[in-house]
Amino acid sequence: MEKNSMANINIQAFPEDITEDGLKIYGETSYQNQIATLSHYLHNTIFEGTYAEIQAHRNELIGLIRDFLEHKNQLQDFSDEDIAHVADCPYEFDLFRDFYQVPFPSPRTYDHTFIDLFAGIGGIRIPFDEMGYHCVFSSEWDAKACQTYFANFGTVPFGDITKIPATKIPKHDVLLAGFPCQAFSIMGKMQGFADTRGTMFFEIERILKHHQTPYILLENVKQLVGHDGGRTFKVILERLNQLWYYVKWQVLNALDFGLPQKRERVIIVGFQHKKDCDDFSFDIPHTPYNLADILEPEKDVDPTLFASDHIVEKRCEKTIGKKVFYPSIWHENKAGNISVLDYSCALRTGASYNYLLVNGVRRPTSRELLRLQGFPEKYKIAVTHQDIRRQTGNSVAVPMIRMVAQKINDIIKKREYETSEIKRFKKVANA
Fold first, then answer.
1. In this predicted structure, what is the pLDDT of residue 81?
2. CB distance 136 to 45 below 8 Å
3. Among the options 181, 277, 316, 345, which is catalytic?
């Protein structure tokens, strides 16, 4: 790298390692901590204000850039003048290209903010991005999920939420959390709060208690509602009530939101004002789905995704006497029974590689898996197919979240309008 060559400074120039597939790995320290800090700082800092404020931001950013380059043993390649130029206008220099040239850039101007806990690959975040909300903090402990998140949103989530004090999390309007569901899932051991993943709800409680976040949206598996005879869910609702939240919840199915996937999830929304909660409704119009809409042409499918002749033959044997049609997804359950359906059963992280076969002959592609969850076409695939299988199995049905997000946004706008009208009335009355 040439000394003082600003054109060569970019995040992709500093991977920890490169795999045989060309995948760039950043390593725990630089990727999960340094870039998380740097990316959140860039997206949350407004480089405007008084001279003193601008200088303070500039000096802080210079420090972050120097720390990053020093960690990568590249500090000696760039002059203080180079680094100062970047800090003066970070939007314009290539160092931060990977933070801004993404499919879902954070809005430069905004009225409302949110935090994205247990963020996964950002499925809950997308609808709020679409509405112009600004994410001020995200957290996710899976490194590969963080890599996908960074490629699409330009921020690297912070790691283990249990290690992050609530005081370090910025003030926000909405808390989003698809908290870990394996502890309550029927596909897992259903240990609930006995499983350390089940205790993650109490991290949400800890943050809500400190910030008194006005609005909350939580997502989990359907089995959470009935786990331990309903006692687990009762504890969650009681804890939210003790924090003075008015709560509504509903089990929703992705099939009702135009997605060819049977995926039932409980959605919990919370409000600090009873009227807001009363005004919120889960009533939704049913949107029909069409499996053909999400399938890629067979000629474009990676040949490695096609099942072996032996697997295909066994599937055909088990469907003798059943109605077979195309397009369809053939689902094998734990007992080995085969169902031929015009939709996918719920995507799962730990399922057999062949539990879902499109038309009985091949596995879904990475793009098809994302489409089954309703991710936009511009969503970037930045990891291996195996990683996408696991990430989509852990993710959410985006259109389902979008409906809830829009309803929450309607409530927020209504409250703001009514508040402004009351202030205007008082002003007129006191004139």
1. 86
2. no
3. 181
Are 122 and 152 contacting, i.e. CB atoms less than 8 angstroms apart?
yes
Decide if 181 is catalytic: yes
Q: Kindly give, in sequence order, each residue whose CB lies less than 8 Å from that of residue 183, ignoring residues fewer than 6 positions away.
A: 190, 191, 192, 193, 194, 195, 196, 197, 198
How far CA 209 is from CA of 155, 223, 239, 376, in Å, comes to: 26, 26, 10, 34
Sign of the Cα pseudo-torsion (400, 401, 404, 405, in order): negative
45: tokens are: 């800092």
DSSP string, 31-82: IIIIHHHHHHHHHH----SSHHHHHHHHHHHHHHHHHHHHHTT-GGGS-HHH
Tens digit of pLDDT for each residue in 270-285? 999 999 999 999 998 8
Summary count for the chain: helices (H), strands (E): 14, 13
Cβ atoms of 152 and 206 closer than 8 Å = no
C-alpha closest to that of 154 among 202, 99, 198:
99
Residue 235: burial class (beta carbons within 10 Å; 0-12, 13-18, 19+): middle
Q: Which residue has the higher pLDDT, 339 or 37?
A: 339
CA–CA distances in Å: residue 256 to residues 98, 122, 223, 288, 289: 36, 21, 19, 7, 8
Please measure the distance between the N-terminal and C-terminal CA atoms of the chain and give it in whole angstroms.
68
Structure tokens at 412: 């927020």
The model's pLDDT over 132-178, given as tens digits with 9 standing for 90+, comes to 999 999 999 888 999 999 999 999 898 888 888 999 899 999 999 99
The identity of residue 178, as a single letter, is: G
With H, G, I as helix, E, B as strand and everything else as coil, classify residue 293.
helix
pLDDT for 160 equals 82
Report how far apart, in Å, the C-alpha atoms of 406 and of each of 189, 206, 350 are.
34, 26, 32
Report residue 423 CA to chain centroid gap: 37
pTM metric for this prediction: 0.87
Return the ∠ at Cα 158 (arms to 157 and 160), rounded to 5°. Answer: 125
Torsion angle of C-alpha atoms 270, 276, 279, 283, degrees rounded to 10 = -20
Range with lowest mean pLDDT among 98-107, 169-178, 194-203, 334-343: 194-203
* Rounded-to-integer distance, Cα 375 and Cα 373, Å: 6
Number of other residues whose CB lies within 10 A of the CB of residue 49? 11
Which of 49-53, 182-186, 323-327 shows the lowest mean pLDDT across its residues? 182-186
